[in-house]
């Protein structure tokens, strides 16, 4: 028997964070809502096992997005969600990570509100939290970092962004969607004052089969990503807390740096 979830008399949209990948990181509330869905509109990175939690009778619609290529533009996704909800359906919008962290969930909520459609948001474990936990990488630590920031690395005008103060001693910076621009990101951070020998970790396919956690120094980030053939999905973590992780070292001088910072 499917878990119970309250079904309204009219249609609605439920934005759900599917987490970084592994289905056992879904919240109980999310699992119940997926099972109650009439329609599941999902991102390409949502694990098939998560989609399998929906009823066999539920319609599944992929709106996968890749760099410079979208199955359906955001306006089209908004229109699809609203149209189906107005028809009386419970429409689940499954998004990787958390809907409100680089997931454009805010835009979908605004569109639903403007259209007079009921909308609910169920949070998910973000990629930063899930992948860092798997690598035993604390994003904050009393001795090493009292602040953490999140930025999108796949943004227009990277050189014009003001990232000064986001990374450095006592701070952690988490960069989403930064694999393709890793070398430029490293140059950007160093030009903004971050030391070239600041530890950096790349967490690839976190919580999924084939996951890797590898680390180097900021100056070598671009070369390491290319040499290791790192692919998305992956996040980049910049900060001294990287030293505490289980990430695999990809730099011959790492031991000297770690010893100097101990």
From TrEMBL:
Enzyme Commission code: 2.1.1.107
EC category name: transferase
Family annotation (PROSITE patterns): SUMT_1, SUMT_2
Stretches that traverse the bilayer: none
GO molecular function, one term: uroporphyrin-III C-methyltransferase activity
Recorded metabolic or biological pathway in which this protein acts: Porphyrin-containing compound metabolism; siroheme biosynthesis; precorrin-2 from uroporphyrinogen III: step 1/1
Coiled-coil blocks: none
BP GO terms, sorted: methylation
Pfam family, one: TP_methylase
Sorted UniProt keywords: Methyltransferase, Porphyrin biosynthesis, Transferase
Domain Tetrapyrrole methylase: 12-221
Superkingdom to which the source organism belongs: Bacteria
Stated family: Belongs to the precorrin methyltransferase family.
PANTHER family (alphabetical): S-ADENOSYL-L-METHIONINE-DEPENDENT UROPORPHYRINOGEN III METHYLTRANSFERASE, CHLOROPLASTIC, SIROHEME SYNTHASE-RELATED
Name of this chain's protein: uroporphyrinogen-III C-methyltransferase
Organism: Stakelama flava
């Amino acid at each position: 028997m499917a878990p119970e979830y309250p079904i309204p008399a009219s249609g609605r949209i439920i934005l759900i964070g599917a987490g970084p990948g592994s289905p056992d990181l879904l919240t109980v509330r999310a699992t119940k809502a997926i099972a109650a869905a009439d329609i599941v509109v999902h991102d390409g990175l949502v694990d098939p096992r998560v989609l399998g939690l929906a009823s066999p009778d539920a319609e599944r619609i992929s709106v996968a997005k890749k760099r410079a290529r979208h199955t359906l533009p955001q306006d089209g996704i908004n229109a699809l969600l609203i149209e189906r909800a107005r028809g009386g359906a419970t429409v689940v919008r499954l998004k990787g990570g958390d809907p409100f962290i680089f997931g454009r969930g805010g835009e979908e909520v605004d569109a639903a509100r403007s259209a007079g459609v009921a909308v609910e948001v169920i949070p998910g474990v973000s990629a930063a939290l899930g992948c860092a936990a798997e690598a035993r990488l604390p994003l904050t630590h009393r001795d090493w970092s009292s602040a953490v920031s999140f930025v999108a690395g796949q943004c227009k005008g990277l050189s014009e962004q003001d990232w000064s103060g986001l990374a450095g001693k006592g701070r952690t910076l988490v960069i989403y969607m930064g694999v393709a621009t890793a070398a430029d990101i490293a140059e950007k951070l160093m030009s903004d004052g971050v030391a070239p020998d600041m530890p950096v970790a790349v967490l690839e396919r976190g919580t999924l089969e084939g996951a890797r956690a590898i680390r180097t120094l900021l100056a070598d980030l671009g070369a390491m990503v290319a040499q290791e053939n790192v692919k998305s999905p992956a996040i980049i973590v910049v900060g001294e807390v990287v030293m505490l992780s289980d990430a695999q070292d990809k730099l011959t001088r790492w031991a000297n740096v770690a010893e100097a910072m101990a």
